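Hi all, posting the design record for the shared folder.

TITLE: backbone redesign
STEP: 1 of 1
STRUCTURE INPUT:
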């Protein structure tokens, strides 16, 4: 590496900052490929390959990046990586192409007096950022500015953002878009296991005798995980619980096409049968759980007639489901957004956890109560975003935890708030109540993805100052911003992601960010300096340095990864799952490269036992009516689309693999009643908004239900802003709509 890289990588970034004359940013912009990768020499050879993890979904596939003159020119899936074993989905194959989009943010943009965004220097942008945020705080109090973050940036950047905002800038409120996908699982695990700890490893897909997928469509949402299921040689029973005949349901040996949101009743009904027949693991229950008697009494009223009525299933289907759980030696339960994005998501997830616990299906190969997460680094966000949890899965309300983290960071513990943040919906409501006046949105697209989108945009418009930090200046949210900070994306910076099975994977810089775009990490460093709190972050010199801080924060926690030496060490092992305490530091690469939690039957609760938690199912907040007779289901459209399509829409290849226009799936019988023909444009309306969509007639949706993919900008015009009471996760999956033929 040349001298400049060594200089920046070593620390002098902060000593350069005081000049505020643009010299720092010029030097950052000029740094060559391989910046900061001193530990990874193969990454800086001009014509070579290097390995890194994908930056779309939580599967965390390993990719081999092919370099030419030091820049990535192509990629291929890694055959040696224990996650994907040589496979990648279309998004992974196209990961580089989306970096070249013409709408990349290449310079800071500031709204002028004509309400138009125009390019400004970094110095102007940062002075504006700090000046206006501080003015808001001076007028409305320190908690009147907040941030919304993401599950898409490296863990080191999340940690920096959370620490900067809360310990440096005096914010109390900040949340992530992971609230929209994973909050339910986090709360369900914390309450049941004592820590947010998905217990599984991907080998469990291959080692199960029965796999139960609830509200989960891995065929398109997690296609490489589904490929792992296809490698299962145990002739597994595959049970899919979903109102729709999804792509995954088509492969199921049992498809339980329940009424929307009746899964909680189904799980309680199955538990009742298991108790009744004595199909429970009494030894495991006695040693490793608490609350079994109360749970058995609670499910007694969930007899077959009741569960049949509530789920719409036949009695034989429910009985066969319970028999499958009993008959098969290794049963694994998997859930995703069909469970999480619900007004009763936490208790539904815990109903699944209860089935696993009462039958001893946890801690053994091919078992587990397994939440599959969504974004590439949702798991990093869950541990290090510093929002509802203090860094490293600690508790803001715990004085000993604050002291510990403050000691590691070398700051006064009084700087650490003694309470967690408002959740995303509470921050949005705070805008409505004029409690939040300034908002910093980092790598997420609120104006598209937040529930009841029309109202969400009204809330954003009420802000005094909206800053968007993103790769693209054209997102729906960036277009509303007062200030846009141009950020580098995946492949243009370094750090670590944590995938669904708790595996750390390394992200490397293999491309230059375009124009003046900077890694989020560097933007945070600059803001710390301009804000005047850089002295708190003198050790936060590089992602690798922050990784060391994170390791120290994790020590003694269930997620302890203090035994991971450095990025190279992780790389050599094909990624490493937490926990990895100091005792594992000297371990040779593990040939199986897989490990699961709770093999000893001990959990992270004070008693060491898992808790069986339950609650009466709640009524659907907005059931269908005569005026709005259909239940709207939303979800992933294809394997080629990703969330708000900020990136996937930029790939010509991916665009060919999904319908460009929004579509709505309607049951053919309903379509006949509506006199709607195939491929006809219709209007879908809820009480909150309307959208145009092309009618796709398919028996995959049941009568009285329609389905629209979540990726289209208009979809959240319809959704209803209700939330799970424990996780505050939005309930995207069920609201009432009507179909109107276009005149
Ligand atoms: Fe990337 Fe996920 Fe596709 Fe793997 S499955 S290539 S991690 S998007």
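Okay, here is what came back for every position:
SEQUENCE:
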């Amino acid at each position: 590496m040349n001298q400049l890289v060594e200089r920046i990588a070593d620390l002098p970034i902060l000593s350069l900052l005081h000049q505020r004359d643009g010299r720092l940013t010029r030097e950052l912009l000029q740094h060559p490929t391989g910046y900061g990768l001193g530990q990874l020499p193969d990454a800086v050879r001009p014509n070579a390959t290097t390995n890194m993890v994908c930056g779309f979904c939580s599967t965390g596939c390993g990719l081999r990046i092919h370099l030419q003159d030091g820049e990535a020119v192509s990629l291929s899936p890694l055959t040696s990586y224990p996650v994907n074993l040589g496979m990648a989905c279309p998004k992974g194959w196209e990961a580089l192409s989306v970096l070249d989009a013409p709408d990349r943010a290449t310079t800071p943009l500031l709204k002028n007096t004509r309400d138009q965004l125009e390019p400004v220097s970094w110095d102007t942008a940062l002075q504006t950022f700090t000046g206006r945020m501080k003015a808001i705080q001076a007028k409305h109090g320190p908690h009147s500015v907040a941030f919304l973050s993401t599950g898409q940036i490296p863990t080191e950047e999340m940690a920096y953002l959370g620490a900067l905002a809360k310990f440096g800038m005096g914010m109390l409120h900040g949340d992530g878009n992971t609230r929209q996908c994973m909050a339910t699982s986090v709360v369900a695990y914390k309450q049941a296991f004592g820590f947010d700890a998905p217990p599984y490893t991907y080998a469990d897909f291959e080692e199960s005798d029965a796999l139960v997928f609830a509200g989960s469509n891995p065929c398109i949402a997690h296609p490489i995980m589904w490929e792992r299921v296809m490698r299962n040689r145990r002739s597994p029973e595959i049970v899919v619980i979903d109102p729709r005949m999804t792509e995954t349901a088509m492969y199921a040996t049992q498809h339980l096409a329940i009424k929307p949101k009746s899964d909680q009743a189904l799980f309680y009904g199955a538990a009742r049968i298991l108790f009744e027949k004595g199909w429970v693991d009494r030894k495991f229950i006695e040693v490793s759980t608490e609350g079994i008697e109360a749970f058995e009494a609670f499910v007694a009223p969930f007899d077959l007639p009741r569960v049949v009525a509530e789920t719409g299933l036949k009695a034989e289907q429910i009985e066969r489901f319970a028999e499958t759980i009993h008959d098969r030696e290794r049963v694994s339960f998997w859930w995703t957004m069909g469970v999480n994005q619900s007004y009763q998501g936490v208790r539904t997830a815990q109903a699944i956890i209860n089935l696993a616990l009462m039958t001893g299906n946890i801690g053994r190969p091919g078992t587990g109560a397994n939440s599959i997460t969504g974004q590439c680094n949702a798991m990093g966000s869950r541990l290090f975003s510093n929002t509802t949890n203090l860094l490293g899965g600690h508790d803001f309300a715990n004085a000993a935890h604050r002291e510990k983290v403050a000691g590691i960071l070398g700051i006064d513990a009084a700087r650490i708030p003694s309470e967690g943040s408002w959740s995303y919906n509470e921050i949005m409501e705070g805008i409505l109540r004029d409690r939040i006046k300034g908002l910093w949105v980092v790598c997420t697209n609120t104006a598209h993805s937040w529930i009841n989108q029309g109202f969400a945009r009204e809330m954003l418009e009420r802000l005094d100052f909206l800053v968007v930090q993103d790769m693209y200046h054209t997102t729906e949210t960036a277009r509303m911003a007062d200030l846009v900070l141009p950020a580098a994306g995946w492949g243009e910076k370094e750090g670590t992601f944590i995938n669904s099975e708790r595996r750390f994977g390394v992200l490397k810089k293999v491309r230059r960010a375009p124009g003046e775009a900077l890694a989020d990490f560097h933007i945070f460093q600059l803001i710390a300096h301009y804000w005047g709190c850089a002295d708190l972050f003198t050790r936060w010199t590089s992602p690798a340095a922050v990784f060391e801080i994170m390791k120290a924060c994790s020590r003694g926690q269930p997620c302890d990864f203090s035994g991971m030496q450095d990025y190279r060490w992780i790389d050599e092992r094909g990624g490493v799952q937490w926990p990895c305490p100091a005792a594992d530091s000297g371990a040779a690469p593990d040939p199986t490269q897989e490990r699961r939690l709770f093999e000893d039957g001990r959990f992270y609760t004070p008693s060491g036992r898992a808790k069986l938690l339950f609650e009466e199912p709640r009524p659907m907040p907005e059931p269908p009516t005569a005026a709005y007779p259909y239940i709207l289901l939303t979800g992933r459209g294809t394997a080629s689309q990703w969330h708000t399509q900020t990136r996937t829409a930029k790939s010509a290849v991916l665009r060919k693999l999904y319908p460009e226009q929004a579509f709505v799936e309607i049951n053919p019988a309903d379509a006949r009643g509506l006199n709607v023909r195939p491929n006809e444009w219709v209007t879908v309306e809820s009480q909150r908004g309307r959208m145009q969509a092309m009618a796709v007639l398919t028996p995959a949706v049941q009568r009285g239900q329609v389905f629209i993919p979540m990726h289209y900008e208009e979809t959240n015009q319809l959704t209803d802003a209700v939330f799970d009471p424990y996780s505050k996760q939005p309930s995207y999956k069920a609201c009432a709509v009507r179909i109107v033929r276009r005149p």
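COMMENT: The pocket of iron/sulfur cluster is lined by residues 54, 56-57, 59-61, 84, 88-89, 91-92, 223-224 (CB under 6 Å).
Let me know if anyone wants the other runs.
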